[in-house]
């Protein structure tokens, strides 16, 4: 379960991505063009310390890009190259926003979501002491999950940041599809797929394979 705050961000997540995305090797769009959201889904950090949100964004004349983001209350050691930017959250204060592919908390959450078949977290707002469900903007399905224990992910050993970004950990190999299109790759492992407004057919978003 992801418990969210009704808050404002300065700058917004889309403002940060408009600046950051053109510098990525997998970006296909017009640099400087406004980035708009097509949908988003979340995972849970069991420790409750790191926010984990995957955004599907694009420009008016370009494809949809998938950007996992993690939100932290302090900088992540050794992750400067994965920093998207900082923002001021009206409830939580300053947040450091990272590309999740370089954050070990995201790798653990993604592996768990895929290999257990649990998919995305349910989202709630807390309003006047009551929890109100937030409607999902992306429908997530998992294909191929086995009824077996999920190994501890361990350290992230390397990340290869390409159209299909590889996250190589001690026990699990993960792939994040940066520009989702139809056509699953069965050899890549268990598949997490999704659909959203404007994308009615389910397309692969990420893969996981144990060593």
Automatic annotation (TrEMBL):
InterPro entries: Mak_N_cap. Residues 20-103 form the Maltokinase N-terminal cap domain. Keywords: ATP-binding, Kinase, Nucleotide-binding, Transferase. It holds the Pfam family Mak_N_cap. Transmembrane segments: none annotated. GO terms for molecular function: ATP binding; kinase activity. This is Maltokinase N-terminal cap domain-containing protein. It comes from Micromonospora violae.
